[in-house]
Amino acid sequence: MTREEKSQVIEDLTAQLADSAHIYLADISGLNAETTSRLRRACFKANVKLAVVKNTLLAKAMESSDKDFGELPSILKGNTSIMLSETGNAPAKVIKEFRKKSQKPLLKGAFIEEAIYIGDDQLDALVDIKSKEELVGEIIGLLQSPAKNVIGALKSGGQTIAGLLKTLSDKEG
Q: CA-CA distance, 15 to 93, in Å (whole number)?
């Protein structure tokens, strides 16, 4: 690879890092062609971009990035693949599901909206991360609950203020 080609790869990786809030580093070494193909299909279905990267070039891209990757550059040893996703837990779910039939990929680390996770033991924590959409849905559900109580109380209380107060006080007691 020429110096110009390396520079172009670093520039492309830096742009991908800048555009992604969810970056996973994994080890997929030792997977045969069929298993690798299944992993790529699983990533595609989950809208996760998977690419094998050279550690030295990824480290330089991380240095060039505006983001603080903390300890992540220190884990760039051996085989490294990068997984990029719009959803914070999508790559973790792909890895976990895939590992039901295979020992790889192994999670090396992750950068999730400025939080850094190091090591394969973080996989379950990453699977449990909720997306912004899931959190918004939960908050809306929580906010709707009191309104539904008031509407239900109005209906059962004869749609008067006194009936509403009586129904609500009965529910508290």
A: 25
